[in-house]
Write a sequence for this structure.
C-alpha cells in the first residue's frame, strides 16, 4: 500500500500513522517528496488487514493499493489458458475450437425448445441455452417455467446431444438446477450475490459469470474469485453489456473485456451480444467483433418466432437469422485462428 | 403502448402489425403523421402481454410504453404518505418526526457495539444499525460475525431500547435475521435479487431497500413492488449513491431521489450518506442536504474508532463527530418542518 | 509519482526504468515489497515531465500520481474563501450573503425579459440570467437573439439595477459579450473548450464555469485553473448535473460537489437546479438542499410563461413559483448561517 | 409527438392542452386508454415548434417525440454509403478499400514526424495523423507546436505523399489549419462546440467528428448535422471511447457504434482504438474488432519512442508494433470483404 500524507501533517500525527502501519503488520518506508511525504507500507495486501482505514487518520490524504486483490483467477496464478469440459460430449470451452451457445431467452414450451435446439445444432451450435427461472424487473412479468422448464431442457439434450446452460437464480435451487444443467449461469443482477456464487461453486458444475451492469473489471474478477476460492476451477466470464448513459442500445457491450480478461485471467471469456445490444439487428456485427477480438464462445438468444417470445422479444434472432450468422462468422473464426 | 412504424412500411406489413396488436389484447388506433404512422394500442399494459415484441416485426421502428409499470408502490395507489412502525417502541418512519439510524458498518464486538449504541442514542438516534452478514467485494475480506453479531445487536437493543436494522444477505437466513431485526436491510448489490426481496417480504418485518449501484428510479420502484406484491406494506426506499464516472467520491449520492420518490411513491425515503460519499468528511453536508430536501430518515455509519474498523473505515464518523452532526442538523430539521 | 513494477521484471528492465526516472528529473526511491517492487519518484509533478510515459516500458505495471495537478484554484494556494464582486452594485458572491441569479433560459423579447427581471428582483434575486447565444443540440432549434439579446439584457440592468450573467459561446464574441455582461458563463458543453476559457479569462470579467456533462472534479478544477492561470482571479464553479444512466431526470445533480469544491478550492460554488433536474417540479427541493449544503449562490431558470418558452420549457419555473421558492428558502438560508 | 395526459386531468385542462397543440401548428388526435388519455400531435417535428413545452402544463405527464431529429446525415436522406475523397491522391474513405490513419499523438519534431510518417506508410497507412494544437486537461501540459507543427505535417506530406489529418481547436485557426490539413479533426471535448463545427464546415475540408465523452448517438448525429447543414457533405464520424464507471481503461470503446452509424447514417465511421483503450497493449484487439464489425477506417497513435512522447505516452504503439498490427489485420480485412 502507498499512504500519501497531507502537506501540513504534524510530526506527532505522522508518528501515529507509522505506528498504526506497523501494528497492522506492514513495514513502513518513508519517502519525503517536494510537497508531500509518502509512505510505502510493505506487506501482503491480500492477507493483512487493509490499510484503507488509515484515511480516517488526521494527516492522511489517501491510501492507494499496489497489489492486485485477486489471486486464483489471475493470469499470474496460472500462466496458460484454462479450458472447461462441458457435458457428456466434453465440449471444450477455451480451447482451439470456438464454441457457440444458442437458444431462447426463456424456455416457453417443449415444441419451442426442441425446434430451436435442432435448428441451432444444425447451424453449428454445441450448447443450448434457455432460461427456466427468469429474473424480471417487474413482478408482473413472466417468471419462467421453473423445474418444468428444466425438464424440457433435459429432454432437448437427450434429443440433440447439446449440452445445457441455464440460469441459477436462488441458492435454494442450486442442487436442483445443477441436476439438469451442464453449465450454471449467474446473471448480471446477481453478479455480486456472493451467497449465490458460493452455492453455484459448490455444486461442482461449470459456472458462467455474467458481468454486473455496473461492475468494474476488478470487481468481476473478484466475484469470480468467490467461485475458485470455493474449489470450483471451472469458471468462465461472460460480458453482456454495461449500463451507460447511451439509450440507443439497451446496454453498451464492452468488447474490450476480451483482451482484458485474457490479460488478467486464465479463465475463458464468452460474449453475449443479445443482452449487450438488446436489438437483434446489431447481433451479427457484435458477433463478428467478438470472434475477431479473441472471445472463446458466444451466447446468443435464438427464437423460432421472436415476436411471440414471452421475454426479450426485441433481441432474439430467428432460426434463419442464426443460420446466416453462423455462416457469416466462418471467415472471421478462421482469421482468428480458431476452428 | 405507442407503436411507431417505419416511414416506408408496406400495407401488408402494417396489416400484420395491426393483427398482432389485436391478438395480444389491445385495441389499435391509427394516426397517420407527416413522416410516420403511429399506432396507439389501447389496453392495460400491466396485465396484457407486452407489445415490445412488436419491435421484432418488419416495419416497426419503436414501441413506447405509456403507463407506469408499478402499481402498489405508486402515489396513485395511495395518496397519503405511508408510515412504518418499527420495534417495540413503535418508532414511526415517514411521520412528522425525523428519524436517525446510526451505528457501525459491521458488528465487530460486544463492546464496540454497546459503546456505539449508547453514544448514538444519547445523541438522538432512535434506531441502531450494524451489519452481521457483510457482502464483500473480495472473498478474502471480513464477512461479518453472522448469528453471533445478531445476538450482540439484540443485546444492544435490550440495553438501550433502540430498534435494530441489519442486512439480509441470503434467502436461507431470512427467518433467522427476522427473529433478531426490527428492519431488514436489502443491500445495493442485492437490490434486484428478487428471490431475496420475496423472502424478506414474507417475514413480515419492515424492509429497507437500498438502490442498486446502477438502478434507474423505475427499476427501484419495481423492485419495491416485489415487496408490496408479497403482502408486506412496510417498505422504505434508501438512496445510497449510484455509480458514475466520478472517482473523487466512492459513489454519487443522488439526493434528487428524495423529491422523486415523494412524487412517485407513498413509501418513506431514507438517505445513507456514508455509502453515498464513502468519506466521513462529506457526511455532514450530505445529511444537511437530505434533511432540507425532505428525507424521512438518515442511515449513518458511526464507529468508536474508525481507523480500527474491519470494513469501510474511511466513511465511518466518530462518536463525537456524530454528536456534533446531530446538533448541527437541528436547525435544518426545524426549517424542514420536522421534529 | 509512484511507479509500480511488474512482479517478474528483470534486473535490466528495472535499471532502464530507474535511469529514465532520473532523466526526467525525479529522484527514484526503491521499495521492495512482498510481490512487487515500487519506486517512489520524488520531484514536483506539476513542473516536471509526467512519468506516465513509463507505462510504455516493459516491466512497468502502473504509474500513480501523488500530487494534485491544480495549484491556483486549490485551497492550499489560498486558505480563505475567495469572494467576487459583481456589477456596479458590487454584489458579493462567496460572502455571507446568499445570492440568487434568476431569469429566462433564453432572452426572447424585451417584454419577456423586463417582466421577468422585475419579478425576480422583487422576489429577492440580485443577478439576472438570460441566454443571448444558445448552444443547441440540433441546428434546427432556436439559437438565441445574439447581440440584440445582449442589448435587452443591458436595458433590463438599467431598469432594475440587477447585474447580468449570460453565456459566452464563441471566442470571437468574447469582447462583445464582455461589454454587456457582468459575469460570463461558460456552458457545460464548452467546459473543456480551453480556447474559450482563455478568451473569457482575458476579458477580465468574472467567469462562471459550469461542470461538463461527464467531467470529473479534478478535470473541472483544472479547467478552472486555465482561468486563474490567465490572470483572472474571479472564477466561480457551477454544478448543473452530470450525465448518468438515470433517465427520470435530464441530468443527475451532484450536490456533493458543494462540500468537495469547498474542501479543494477557495472559489465560490453555485448550483443550477434547473439544468440539473430538467423539471420545474424538482427545482424547489434541489434549491433547499443546495442552500443547506453550503452553496454560495443559485442559478435558476424563471419564465413568465414556461409553456411558451423557446428553449427548455420543461425546466423553467413561473414568476409566482419563483416568489414562493424564495420565500420557502428563507429558513434554510438562516439555518445555514447565511443572509 | 405523443402527449401523455395524467390520469386525473380535468376536462378544462385537457381543452387547454388541445388548444395549445393546435396553436403550435400540430393536429391533435385523441386516444382514450384504460388509465390515461394520449394525444397524437401530427405535424413535422423538425420544423414546427417543439411540443416539449407542454410538460409545463398542468395535466400533462410526458411528451415523447416520434420523428428523428436529424435529416441530412440520416440514412433516409441518402440510401447509399457516402464516400470522401481525401488529399491529392484522392484517397477514398468509405469505399471498398479499408483505410488506416496513423501517426503520433503530438507533432514533436521534424525527425519524430518524418520517421513515423515513413514507417506508417511502409506498413500500409495512407493518411498521417499528428496534433499541432493539443487540448490538454491541465494548462501546465504541453499544448502542441502550433503552426510550426502544421508546417512539419506539410513537409511530411511532401516527402511521403500521405494525406494529413490534424485537430482544429479554435474557430480562429480554422483557415490556417485548413490550409495545411487534408482532414480537420474535431476532438471529443469540442464535439458540441457548435461554433467550431460551423467554422470547420465552412472551410470546405473533410471533417472527422469524434464522439464526445458522454454523447448519445443521437446527439452525435445532430452535431454532424451542423456540418452538413453548413454545406459541407464530407463528414465522417469517429468513435474514440465514451466515459463510463470503468477505470481499467481510460475510456470504454463503444464498437457497437459501427453497425449503429451504418444503420442510421450514410457517413463513414472511423475507429480510434488508441484513445478508446488508453493502453497500447489493447490496441491490436480493438483494431481487429473494428475491422470485423465494418468500420471504414482506423485512426491509430504511433510513436517511434512512446516513452519519450510529450503526450499520451501510454497509448501510442511503436513503429514495429504498428507494422505487426497491419500484418495481423490483413485476414480480418479480407474476411470483412474489404481491401
Amino acid at each position: 500500500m502507498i499512504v500519501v500524507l497531507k502537506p501540513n501533517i504534524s510530526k506527532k500525527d505522522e508518528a501515529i500513522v507509522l505506528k498504526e502501519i506497523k501494528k497492522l503488520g506492514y513495514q513502513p518506508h518513508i519517502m519525503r517528496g517536494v510537497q508531500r511525504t509518502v509512505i510505502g507500507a510493505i506487506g501482503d495486501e491480500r492477507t493483512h488487514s487493509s490499510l484503507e482505514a488509515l484515511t480516517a487518520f488526521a494527516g492522511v490524504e489517501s491510501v492507494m493499493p499496489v497489489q492486485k486483490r485477486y489471486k486464483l483467477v489471475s493470469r499470474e496464478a496460472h500462466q496458460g489458458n484454462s479450458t472447461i469440459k462441458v457435458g457428456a460430449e466434453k465440449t471444450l470451452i477455451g480451447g482451439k475450437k470456438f464454441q457457440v451457445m444458442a437458444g431462447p431467452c426463456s424456455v416457453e414450451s417443449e415444441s419451442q425448445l426442441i425446434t430451436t435446439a435442432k435448428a441451432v445444432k444444425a447451424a453449428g451450435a454445441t450448447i443450448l441455452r434457455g432460461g427456466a427461472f427468469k429474473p424480471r424487473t417487474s413482478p408482473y412479468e413472466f417468471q419462467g417455467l421453473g423445474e418444468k422448464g428444466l425438464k424440457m431442457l433435459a429432454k432437448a439434450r437427450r434429443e440433440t446431444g447439446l449440452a445445457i446452460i441455464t440460469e441459477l437464480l436462488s441458492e435454494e435451487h442450486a442442487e436442483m438446477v445443477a441436476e439438469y444443467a451442464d453449465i450454471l449461469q449467474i446473471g448480471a443482477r446477481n453478479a455480486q450475490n456472493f451467497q449465490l456464487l458460493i452455492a453455484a461453486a459448490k455444486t461442482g458444475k461449470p459456472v458462467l459469470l455474467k458481468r454486473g451492469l455496473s461492475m468494474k473489471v476488478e470487481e468481476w474478477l473478484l466475484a469470480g474469485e468467490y467461485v475458485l476460492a470455493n474449489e470450483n476451477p471451472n469458471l468462465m466470464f461472460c460480458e453482456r453489456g454495461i449500463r451507460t448513459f447511451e439509450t440507443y442500445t439497451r446496454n453498451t457491450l464492452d468488447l474490450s473485456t476480451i483482451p482484458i480478461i485474457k490479460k488478467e485471467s486464465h479463465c475463458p471469456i464468452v460474449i453475449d451480444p443479445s443482452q449487450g445490444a438488446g436489438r437483434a439487428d446489431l447481433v451479427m456485427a457484435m458477433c463478428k467483433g467478438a470472434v475477431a477480438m479473441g472471445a472463446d464462445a458466444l451466447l446468443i438468444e435464438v427464437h423460432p418466432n421472436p415476436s411471440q417470445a414471452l421475454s426479450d422479444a426485441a433481441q432474439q434472432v430467428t432460426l434463419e437469422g442464426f443460420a446466416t450468422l453462423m455462416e457469416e462468422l466462418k471467415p472471421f473464426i478462421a482469421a482468428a485462428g480458431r476452428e
